Amino acid sequence: MLDALRTIEEEFRAAIDEAGADPERVEAVRVRFLGRKSPLTALMKQLGKLSAEERPAAGQAINQLKKSIQQSIEEAVEKAAAGALEQELQDSSVDVTLPPRSPWRGSQHPVHATRRELERIFRDLGYTIETGPEVEDDFHNFQALNLPPEHPARDAQDTFYLEGDRLLRTHTSPVQIRTMESRRPPIRMVCPGRVYRRDHDATHLPMFHQLEALVVDKGISMAHLKGTMDRVWKTFYGEQVKTRLRPAYFPFVEPGAEYDISCQVCGGEGCRVCKQTGWIELGGAGMVHPAVFEAVGIDPDVYSGWAFGLGIDRIAMMRHGIDDLRLLVENDVRFLSQFPT
Amino acid sequence: MLVSLNWIRSLISCDAETDEISRKLTDRGLTVDAVTRHGEDTVLELDIPANRPDCLGHVGVAREIAAGFGLPAPTPETASPSADGNKMVEIDDLAGCPRFTASVVRGIKVTPSPRWVVDRLEACGLRSVNNVVDASNLVMLETGNPIHFYDLARVQGARLRVRRAEEGERLTTLDDIERELSADMLVIADGGRAVGLAGVMGGAETEIREDTVDVLVEAAYFDPQTVRRTARKLGMHTDASHRFERGADRNGVLAAQHLARRLLTDLAGGKPELELEDLHPEPPAAVQRTLRGSRVATLLGYRPEAAEIKKALEAVGLSPEEAEEGVWSTTIPSWRVDLLREADLVEEVARDLGYDRIPAMRGEPERLPIGSRQRAADQAEERARDLLAHLGFHEAVSYAMIGPGEDQAFVAAETPAPIPLSNPLAEPLSALRRSVLPGLLKALDRNIRRGTRDVRLFEIGHVFHDRSTGLPLEPARLAIVWSGASAPVHWSAPVPDVGLSDMAGVVEAVISGVTRNPAPPRDSQVGIDAFHPAISASWTADDAPVAWAGELHPAVRDRLDLPSGIFIAEIEIGKLAAGRPLPAQYRPIPRFPSPARDLSLVLDAGVRFADIRAAVESVPSPAPSAVDLIDRYAGAPLEEGQVSLTVRLSLHPTERTLTDEETEGYRAKVVQRLEQVGGIRLRD
Ligand SMILES: [Zn+2]
Description:
The structure holds two protein chains of two kinds. By secondary structure, chain A is an alpha+beta fold.
């Protein structure tokens, strides 16, 4: 009996090894060794022929072998299933180097992206964003800014005129005037927008973008201007940037200044971009001229204020390394798509 | 202005290096743009601000340098007018010419100039003409006061009169151009005719010639506005007008006379007559100004020492007297026409002490508002920008100026006429746009010509609608142009080109993205010529159009020489942005199943999807219902013009689960209703 069991076990091990991970052959092995016609079933039937003393031990031996076979078959079935999945996965592999289905990526114009970044910095500092008309009258664009008719400083602002007492604003400063006309101090504002000058060459477009900041209250000084400017440019360019003021003339500020930031290309050492000076001029600044306050009915003996301005296009060009101004208005998709959002 | 350092050193004793001088001038607000060599001389190219005409002469620049280095200021010699002049001049117009000095130098000989004169003039960018003409230029470049020489023999009656021109009067100026004058221009006339444009240019008739012997020297002060208006009206800009219109030194005319007479003597062997006529009937009182130390502190943010303030004012030729503690009173010298107010004196102090002295103060006084909310309009534009960029569109910027009539086909018939520019740069930039589309289409055209087939551009900007009075309206518009593929091209399946449905979808996405509300119903009437009459749509809110989209009209397309298949849209983003959208409000998610039934319908020509939707919506439903289009087919075996639509009816109960009978009953009623519409039948 035990010999017969040993033979069955040996036959089973050989068969199951041979079946491997093939699910059909594993099934055949199961039927052969556990089915109704299996040698184990035949042995069970012979149990009756054994003596009462031998029977329990023989029955136990048969059952043990049956369990062992069952377990081996289960393992073989699992292995077969895993093998089948593996095969399926291998069969379904794709070429991952094929181009994927990419969604389109649009872009924001670099000038607008820069404008937005600057607006955000000022808003975080508590400034309101103000806008005004692009078609202006002489009063708001010139006279209220201490530029009376026939003032020679009007030469610097080649103006596009329209019918009537109207023109295309040459700077965003009229928005300062309109804001001061409509609101009493304290005022803390910036005005970004399109401006126009009758000038068209390699370094000038007839339409460009400015942003000006204005603060008016009691006790505002040039030291506040310096401190704010420092904060704004450090936020925009990083803590390493330095700012400085130089005396300059603009009719609407007194004292007036131009301001520079340390060259971001050479870090102030001097290079081609900054013409070896280590500084890049960004725009005009100064204390609001008393004549401007008088034009909008604010008492210059009670209030003081500072203002400064900048050209957004120029800053966008420096920021993105754009070397040709015309690219900003050509709207070539190959240019625009380099500034994805 | 070109400044010769040799010339400067002849006026003050300054041994500083060029670099130091350059830096000092720039720090004082006279920016040195370039430094060049001219033979033995060094030339500084100075950017003189419009308020500093005193620095349009070497004496003024020397004063600034002297102030910067703490050196004694230059002291130009002046001529003394005779008590009883020889009465050669009359001033008819004191407003235009408040001061006129004249003298005569006899017996000059016109020759080429000596080398040092040629060098100085060339260093300053002028060419030498002859000793006499050069003398007048030297005077202007040294004193900043332009002067004029007349050939006395050609001045009729040997008399001059300053008067307004007669309307239509003619004068040939030194440049040999005959000019027609108007009554608001100021001229110098002799016994018979105008012989010079006051402060702008002399006349050809009385100019210095080879045979000139006696010279009449004019050194006058002309009203800046008069000179500027005259020069501009005649399209002229001369060295003289440049200085006079900024404000010459009214008292400097005597120094100019002195130098002129000396140079005519030294260079041309002339003999000045003793008489010097000085017509100055209303000399202004000396200008007196006050500066408070407290004001300096308020404007600069720091308080300099009293001695520093005094020294700063003295350095630029002022004479401060401390009237009371911390308050100075000073006379303003005649050449500093820019020092009109206390703030101007504060700048003098700041300049002298250096702008680097100003501390950088963080934060403003407490009471300024902190934090600010973005305005609704800006927020709307920003949302539209972000949305379109995420949908694959590129933001463009184009000029607000376009060619005349270029936008005619792109605006509604009732739009006011375009506003022309009075002085355009060029015809294609001569009117203000009323639609953003023409500019964007130009950009699209440029892209296609450069080989880019798929072009998707948008721009947000103002258009200009004139009104009968005042400033025009400037509504904000968003325009979109789209050509080429309707979706990203991929190898897995062909992608159709853009169609109305694509553009309409983007427009509605923008509208609902900006307003946070569904887009208003779509209409087929656009009524703007540039849009294909059949392949276009518009959206109306509150009885006004808020958006229009469609294919570019073939006629317009051909006129612009563009390929077919271009879709355009324009949105009144300003109108949409009028209010800040409310936060989205939560509605409960349905807890009951939503049964759906598909209907396949055949529509005869002329029946639209909107007819189906209207019919469905007119049937009472047991729960909120929806109708969606899930398939559309045209072609065999349908007849020409027919289309087959498969629509999905769905019900979304909120109270309880619907029974099959209820759903079926609803479906039956819808079918019945659709069949009553006419031209719609259920497909078997
Ligand atoms: Zn650099």
